[in-house]
Amino acid sequence: MTTTRMRYVEMRLGPEPMAEPYIIEVHCTSCEAASTPAPEQVPGEQRDKAEEWALAHTGKADAEGRHHTGYRVTVTMFWRVTPSEDIDPPAAARGRG
Ligand SMILES: [Zn+2]
């Protein structure tokens, strides 16, 4: 029989402080073209650049003279959960059993 000990630990969920707030990538649904996301210097800059990329891509005709108008946009965010106290076993106990 196994005994499980439980405890209540308050946790806070928030943005990962070491990562970009978000990354926006635009992929053309007609070809393999995709935007190149860059770190944001000014709030909203990534969204503006993603929109500009899509508009510019549509403005260029492909080899058959057609304009690509469909896009798949992905927004990636990074979160971090911060427990109010250490929830991992002590370093000496890790890797055992
Ligand atoms: Zn395309």
Series of H and E elements:
EEHEE
Q: Taking all residues together, what is the mean pLDDT? A: 91
Mind describing the biggest β-sheet?
A: 2 strands, antiparallel
Unreliable stretches (pLDDT < 50, length at least 5) are none
Number of helices: 1
The SS-based structural class is: alpha+beta
Bound molecules: zinc ion
Domain DUF7848: 1-85
InterPro entries: DUF7848
Protein name: DUF7848 domain-containing protein
Descriptive notes:
This protein is elongated. The two termini are 16 Å apart. It has 1 helix and 4 strands, in the order E-E-H-E-E. By secondary structure, the protein is an alpha+beta fold. The strands form 2 sheets. Strands 1-4 form a two-stranded antiparallel ribbon. Strands 2-3 form a two-stranded antiparallel ribbon. The protein has one domain. Bound molecules: zinc ion (ZN).
Which short descriptors sum up this protein?
binds zinc ion, DUF7848 domain-containing protein, alpha+beta, 97 residues, DUF7848, two-stranded antiparallel sheet, 15% helix, single chain
How are the secondary structure elements laid out?
Blueprint: E1 11-15, E2 23-28, H1 45-59, E3 71-76, E4 79-83
